[in-house]
Write a structure and sequence with these properties.
The protein is α+β, with helices and mostly antiparallel strands and about 400 residues long. A 6-stranded mixed sheet has the order 10-9-8-13-20-19, with helices on one face. Strands 1, 2, 3, 4 and 5 form a 5-stranded mixed sheet that branches. Helix 2 runs parallel beside helix 4. The chain starts with 7 loop residues before the first helix and ends with a strand.
Amino acid sequence: GFTNDLSEESLIRIAREGAAALRGDRIYDICGWRRMAERCINPIRILPESVSKQRKAEQLRLASAAARAYHDAVTQTRAGYLEVMKHVLVANSEGIWGEENRTRSRFTIEAVASSATEKQSGHLGPGGSEGYELFERINVEDTAREAARIAVTMLGAKPCPAGKIPVVIDNGFGGVIFHEACGHGLEATAVARNASVFAGRLGQQIASPLVTALDDGTIPNGWGEMDDEGTPTAKNILIENGILRSYLVDRLNSRRMHTAITGSSRRQDYRFAPTSRMTNTFIANGKSTPEEIIAHTEFGLYAKQMGGGSVDPATGSFNFAVLEGYMIRNGRIAEPVRGATLIGKGAEVLRDIDMVGNNLKRAQGMCGSKSGSIPTDVGQPMIRVSSMTVGGRG
């Protein structure tokens, strides 16, 4: 249950309603709460509330102007700035007491390029658990020009051919495929109900030996510190050299699965019950350089920027749009192509990764699931999948 009325009467009513919904005896004897020490892995230098609205608006004006000035074909821009500041306190009947301040900032820019017959867009959205110092880390004009470049490049691209071919997926937001098609299947929310293709497979080879994947809630200024059940976030190795080592486990599902919690319980806000969710999830660096991966691909698709898609967590089947794509011919990046879609199953993609780069990069996004919409990081170095179904024009 939840309420935003903190009067004694309201709080007792919510407690009684929650107790009435449970079956069986639930008796706790709390002798005192154990306060969790703050680790301060997300230091904030410039509180967003200390910066004027005019200064923030100027950043958006600069970004919009830079995108429009990139090319005459850029006809629309949308720049945004998000700041969230909240204080979170967790006190539970097992004696845990944890609290922390959470500040996050994000800048987004979308550029739309138009011709007489079509429109194409480019979008970027850097951010993190940081304050207004975000704008010292990024240059909004450079970011806007990059979004405009994507839109203009795709405006003049030819339709992508369809077929089953090797696919090279670039670093950064390319990791959204692992996040959606595999990461959600490693959350105890699905595993405990046996609604995941990875349920019951701990210790088994589920991926190429080249693949090591982590969910690391200890990355400074990433998404982590204390989870929403008062547990310190952790560095969880999910897959090690292709072997499934761990799931992401919250308190309720740890009891169902008889396994340890992993500091992975998150929720949008107090209106949602917390459950197992990802924080900063990525495929670790390999040994190949990006240049080697491209040079060793005689023919295929280079997915430089990924867009949105859909996934069935129970089967891992996915369908993702490629926001910026190019054909690879004779070991070289060739002409840009638009309308490409990557189709497959997460478990198959993991097995078919045959090259992993050494240029790991993370990118920010929002993830929606049972406990609401939360900020997450995806990431990977450049990878090559030996064979994938590419939707386009046959």
